[in-house]
Amino acid sequence: MPFVRRNAEGKVEAVFAQPEAGAMEELPHDDPSIKEFLHTEGPDAEEDPEWVHSDLSLVRVIEDLVDILIDKGVLSFTDLPVPAQQKLMGRRGLRKDLEYVAKLFPDDDEEHYYMAPGDVYGDYNGGAEDENT
To answer: Which range among 23-32, 38-47, 59-68 shows the weakest confidence by mean pLDDT?
Structure first.
């Protein structure tokens, strides 16, 4: 159970895994004052979108760093705790989905056409009706 330090108003101002000076009170993990502390601390996405964007960018850097360490044989994927493995695999799946969507809808200036099943690349007539139909 976590140990907490309270401020002059009696609200939790810090949470510790071990007892600390001024933090000898032990509370259950689901105590409402701990939930309130965890919910109110840190930036809110609406209040500070720059901070949230920075965190998301750092997550991507850490993902890439893990991939590099694995590629170089410094780290084995199975060395990571199972929850970390699951999170990385989930993000890799999401990243592949996003890459697929990005290929479908590129944002460059080149023209791209939708090809229906059975179309042959190079035979697209720009949407004009075939005279033989």
So the answer is: 38-47
Contact assessment for residue 87 and residue 66, using Cβ atoms and an 8 Å cutoff: no
Place of tokens 């199975």: 78
Sequence-separated contacts (24+) of 11-20 with Cβ below 8 Å: 11/36, 11/37, 12/36, 12/37, 13/37
| Structural contact between residues 58 and 51, judged by C-beta atoms closer than 8 angstroms | no
pTM equals: 0.43
- Quickly count: other Cβ atoms within 10 Å of residue 5's Cβ: 15
Burial class (CB in 10 A: 0-12, 13-18, 19+), 75: middle
**Residue showing tokens 């460059």:** 108
